[in-house]
Amino acid sequence: MESKSCNNFISYVGFEEHEMQNLGSSRRNSINENSIKLLPGEAVVAKGQNVLMFEPVSESKQGISGVLSITNFKLTFVTADDNGDDIYQQNNLYGYTDTCLSNIDTIYLLMGDKKRKLVPGAVVPSKVKGIFIICKNLRTWSFSFKFSPIGDGKNVLNALLHHAFPTKHHLLFAYEYKEPYYSSVDKEVQLFRNITDWQNELDRTYSRGIHLKNGWRLSTANVEFQICPSLSEYIIVPASVTDSQLFKVAQHFQGSRPPVWSWSNEQGAALVKMSELCPSITERTQENIMLENIRKNHPRKIQPVIIELNKDISIKAVASSFSKFVHLCSPESVRQFLMQENNFYSLLESTKWLKYVSYCLQKAVEASEQLNNGVPVILQEGAGRDVCCIISSLVQLLSDPYFRTITGFQSLLQKEWVAAGHPFCDRLGHLKNDGSKKSPLFLLYLDCVWQLCQQFPAEFEFTETYLTTLWDTAHISIFETFIFNCERDRIKAATDPNTRLVLRSVWDWREQFNEQDILLFHNPLFNHPGSSSPSYAKGKSAFLKPLYKISCLEIWSQCYFRWIPHLVINNGGHNQIEMYARLLQNDVAQLQMDINGGGGISSSPIDKMSTYLLQMNINSFYPFSNKKSGNTVSTPIINTSFIMSESMIDAESLLTAPD
Amino acid sequence: MEKRGSAELLNVEQSNSKNASSDSLNSDSKSSSLNSKIGQESESWEKASRSKSFSTSSTSTDNNIISALETNKENQGKEDLNLTGNETGPPLLNGERVQGVARDVTYLCPYSGPARGVLSVTNYKLHFRSIDRETPYVVDMPLGVVSRIEKVGGALSRGENSYGIEIFCKDMRNLRFAHKQENHSRRNVFEKLQQYSFPLSHNMLLFAYEYSETFPDNGWNVYEPIAELKRMGINNDMWKISKINDLYSICDSYPGVWAVPTAATDEDLQSSAAFRSRGRLPVLSWIHPESQATITRCAQPLVGVGGKRSREDERYIQLIMDANAQSHKLIIMDARPMANAVANKAKGGGYESEDAYQNSEVVFLDIHNIHVMRESLRKLKELCFPTIDETRWLSGLESTMWLKHIKCILTGAVKIVAKVETHKTSVLVHCSDGWDRTAQLTALAMLLLDPYYRTIKGFEVLIEKEWLSFGHKFQQRIGHGDEHHSDADRSPVFVQFIDCVWQVSQQFPNAFQFNEHFLTTILDHLYSCRFGTFLCSSERERVQERLKERTVSLWSYINNQIPFYQNPLYWDGPNHQLVLIPIASMRYIKPWKSFYCRWNPSMRQQDPVYQRTRELLVQKEQLKKKAEECRREQASRTNRTLNSSAPPRLHSPVHS
Questions:
Q1: How many Cβ atoms from other residues are within 10 Å of residue A617's Cβ?
Q2: Which of A560, B136, B144, B628 could form a disulfide with B529 if both were Cys (CB 3.0 to 4.6 A apart)?
Q3: B439: nearest Cα among B653, B253, B301, B616
Q4: Helices B402-417 and B370-384, axial angle in degrees (round to 10)
Q5: How far is Cα B9 from Cα B65, in angstroms, rounded to an integer?
Q6: How many CA atoms lie within 13 A of A229 on its CB side?
Q7: Catalytic residue among B298, B384, B431, B597
Q8: Taking CB atoms and an 8 Å limit, are A648 and B337 in contact across chains?
Q9: Fold entry, domain A12-165
């Protein structure tokens, strides 16, 4: 297999084969220059010729030669035998050998065996041998400028450092993108930007509990962000609290954020997010007034419980955990990969990533149990914009089946993250900052949701492919959804005559993908509520109770390992289950069509599968895998050149050696 | 039975979910077939109590269906068979008798606290049934799983529940019972437990010899050596069937029927056997249907310190190489770490020198010996039972080395597959004696290479062939009925193999006809001594013991209820994969929690894979039903049109 693979790599050029390299390159250049695909408003800012790109997690001995360009939107590598069809999931905005600049996390300068991390504004040496890039979606890139014209490396690197870490928000590509936009977002997705969405949500939750007096009301006190800049313009507050009271109360809380309603269950128990009191304020009167109002407005006047979310978790702790975790997911070389194999489990433990996943799920279960007993729950944390968002949306996923549909999930993200003012711009690190604000809380949330999908495979309408794509999408600086810190900033940018930002929603998936790829977001195992399937039999409560102990959690390999070629399982992986279910559905749809004479009438997205051409022989990272990888990555390194750890030949086994 | 099939599964599922919380048949979710023999399931009390605290999710009952069904079925049968059982006594198998009963015993459950009840001992199992709880708490365990029994506390011990019996088991759990501190209340059951857990140490027969039950299909006929060789196309030009060992005279731990190179004479075989440890010469395990590359197995050569050679053995190996026209090489996979292979020279063993065996290449696979594996599993048990320390679960797992050993074995198997499949080169596998690591490697490699072994019957054949007939010493490794719990010959080699199979099934969820429950059932009966399958250590011993006549085969039992063991995701249609290459990376190798941690109720509420499988089965059945309806509708329509347009015909034209 190994020998075969080498023959397949016609364009693979060894470092030693210098002459051959030059022969082919001029031809490639001419092809390449024409084939950089640019979006309207996109412009090339730097270019490196004859750049070698290495296979991720390889020995960096052989690379593909091509042109590495930096635009104001992306990093793009174009090679002669590059064809855009190399990947299953195709993005309309960028290709397989491209990455959005906002996705770039860290850039390392390669110097022989060492590497040096470069921060924006760092002085770039005149001779750049190679660079190694780690992306926020864990993809890695490794380039060598060994054969490039002098200066190309430096130019590319300078452009990269400058454009990947903009200093001002209006330098993000969203402001440059000139493509006209006609929204085709599903109308069912509530953006929680206007008053009706809020009113509907309040009505929806209260219509389920039939005889309940609604203890909450929609307030317009924050219109034009008069109370709080980071909350939405419409907030839902205890019915007994007047708007003028709100103004007063808000000042006592961090970020001027008064406690606001998130959701209520059938029993009228509300889920509330609350920030902590400002450090300067010592008396708790205002807090107590709000607590009393929340109690009073409960149908049975039950005292709310406060779940504090600032004890065992912090933005910083999550960030540092993830930075360790990244190393396990994005090894820079085979050597590092194999070293990690030796003690992967203890390395994993030391990152504490699963510990935080476990923490969030545990808190969500605690809160859900309280609510289920009719007790109102108040989530409290610093400014109530981070861990609060994770827990409150998890609670709603556990308790409210509506949010487990795709439109419901998107509405939930709008309500609990976007409108609630989770500082996406800071946390995702879209702008150059000192790094203290950057923290992948959103990924932590997606990981928690993924764990739920694993434990309840038929309860969610979306697939893990959807969740992974969502994390990728969070780093495309074209969509408004994840680039702002709060609604006020968003509205400002959209109305400012100087910028006039077009608000493109991430939920407009057609901007990125074709129908076939969007269909992969639909979980074929999903039991539509109301369907006759047995698990939706009457009397079944909607409350999911996941296991949250670390020993019960799994690693989200699709999201974290998909860029490591050695981990591709050909014809294997969990998505085989999905494929199998789709096959069955295809058969059924086909039969139905046959019977109905071609007029299968159903609006369910799954029925569209009848037109869906199933990809057979998919590998474990489908649809993110490179189509070629199945052939080119031969018997994985771990299996052929197996580096046995020294620790395996331990004293113990030598003692008992002659067996 | 087969006809009942999955339609019935569906019905049960529906009825189950209707009364999810009050389901008294709510059986052990790991559906251990051992436990499911009785009406009340062992952990049912816990289940019931947990479901009171919150309503169960859609799927939490799903994985109980299989065992619920089994329970139903077995109970139906029992009505006629169970003559001795009464209201409170344990349900009994045919040939099972109650030997001792202790009342007023407290079972100290590590999860739900003490439960007071009656402890019975039969010649097959231990049975405890609580009397102080609304839903009785039941422990039901074959005595075959007992490793050792100890008395805890004496007549003068103080404190509650300080006097009693502790039972250490081979299947990752321990049980503790507390007795009243008077009249030697534990003496009788303790003695009976000793006797019937370790019948061989008390000059008694294993239960398998007393158990009788007839099944429609006799599992002893599942494996016919000649038929299996014929399936692989033997005899052919290069390989022949040899019955030279018919009386087990050349090698007493080998089967009576071998496949060897056609060119090899009986003298060749005899002299090769003379140069191999315990006479275990290279014979065929598997042959590639297209390339004719083979997997052969043997024991180490008797090289010794002096570096002895055997021209005959070298010539014989050359014949194996020559039998494969596609390659001029032979890879010798020595399962051991090189250090161990070298150390074996001191005891007269060793490994092939590449100088002596021309065109051969020796590869060491670094798999450790049975003692290392035993120690590793002991540590794993310490980590998993009774409760898990969450703060150091991952690093604790690493320190047991268990997953590392699994990875090593998988890596070895993948290397064999790569040579045979990709390089079309024959591989000879051995370790020291060729009955532990060698069996793991050849069986796994065959499983990866040949889809037949991934079916239920094929897997049974694989175990019969590579493990049982080639003399894996089950008797010594498991220690059936033997009280010497610290015997150095005991080792979980077979458990480890099943774990590897499970790992592969995790990576290829639709490549196997069987499900996890099938693997668990095999492991349960590895210990139970209810069936004759895993008794004795070689084919010769089994023939001597007349096991086929005197005991029931596990495969009779399993093949009688195939639907329980079927993987609904199994895909053998077009494009199904012939060869599996699992990724032997630590990032994928996982602890088999639903086996090792199955006694811990908090670990087993949901098993995602199993659950998903159950869900799919239901969904598949629904879809199938739907499709069937469509087809029927179509058929009737076609019939109508045909009837109106054409003269009536005798047979319906649609059903094919």
A1: 12
A2: B144
A3: B253
A4: 130
A5: 7
A6: 8
A7: B431
A8: yes
A9: PH-domain like (2.30.29)
Total-model pTM: 0.88
Residues of chain A with Cβ-Cβ distance to B509 below 8 Å are 572, 574, 576-577
Predicted pLDDT of residue A220: 95
Where do the structural domains in chain A lie, given as residue ranges?
12-165, 195-552
**Most distant CA pair in chain A, distance:** 85
Q: How many CB atoms lie within 10 A of CB B567?
A: 22
CB contact under 8 A, A649 and B403: no
DSSP string, A295-311: HHTSTT-PPPEEEE-SS
B437 annotated ligand-binding residue: yes
Q: Is B58 on the interface with A (CB under 8 A)?
A: yes
Q: Using alpha carbons only, how large is chain A's radius of gyration in Å?
A: 26
Residue B585 to residue A341, Cβ atoms within 8 A? yes
Cross-chain residue pair B408–A617, CB shorter than 8 Å: no
Q: How far, in Å, CA of B189 to CA of B180, rounded? A: 13
> What own/partner pairs with CB < 8 Å and gap ≥ 24 does B112-120 have?
B112/B45, B112/B46, B112/B49, B112/B137, B112/B601, B114/B161, B114/B178, B115/B45, B118/B88, B119/B177, B119/B189, B120/B89, B120/B90
Complex ipTM value: 0.89
Q: Is B493 helix (H, G, I), strand (E, B) or coil?
A: helix
Torsion of CA B522, B524, B527, B529, to 10 degrees: -80
Interface of B with A in 405-464 (CB under 8 A): 408, 411, 414-415, 418, 422, 432
Please, which residues bridge with residue A235 across strands? A219
Contact at CB, B17 and A569, closer than 8 angstroms? no
Nearest CA in chain A to B405: A648
Provide the chain B residues 329-358 that lie in CB contact (below 8 A) with chain A: 337, 339-340, 343-344, 346-347, 349
Element (H, E) at A117: strand A114-118
Distance CA B337, CA B547 (A): 37
Query: Which SS3 state, helix, strand or coil, does residue A12 take?
Result: strand
Tokens of A366: 């605690």
- One-letter amino acid identity for B57? S
**Closest CB from A571, A581, A639 relative to B415:** A639
Task: Tell me the pLDDT band of B333, cut-offs 50, 70 and 90.
Answer: very high
Give residue A434's pLDDT.
Answer: 75
pLDDT tens by residue, B435-476:
999 999 999 999 999 999 999 999 999 999 999 999 999 999
Among the four given CATH numbers 2.60.120.10, 3.90.1010.10, 3.40.720.10, 2.30.29.30, the one describing domain B5-209? 2.30.29.30
Q: Which of A566, A617, A652 sits opposite B585 (nearest CB)?
A: A566
**Closest residue, chain B, to A340 (C-alpha):** B586
Q: Residue A642 is encoded by which pair of tokens?
A: 């197996």
- In sequence order, the 6+-apart residues with CB closer than 8 A to the CB of A170 are A493, A498, A499
For A607-651, the pLDDT digits (tens) are: 444 344 556 678 889 888 876 544 333 333 333 333 333 333 333
Domain ranges of chain B: 5-209, 219-266+292-604, 629-656
Size of chain B in residues: 656
Does B434 show up as a binding residue in the annotation? yes
Other residues' Cβ atoms within 10 Å of the Cβ of residue A561: 22
Residues 6+ apart with CB under 8 A from A641: none
Instruction: Give the angle A22-A26-A30 at the CA atoms, nearest 5°.
Output: 155
Chosen from B612, B618, B638 to mutate, greatest number of chain A CBs within 10 A: B612
* Nearest CA-CA partner of B275 in B307, B256, B300, B292: B300
Answer yes or no: is B592 a known binding residue: no
The CA-atom distances, in angstroms, between B17 and each of A652, B20, B60, B73, B656 are: 51, 5, 9, 20, 37
Q: Known catalytic residue: B431?
A: yes
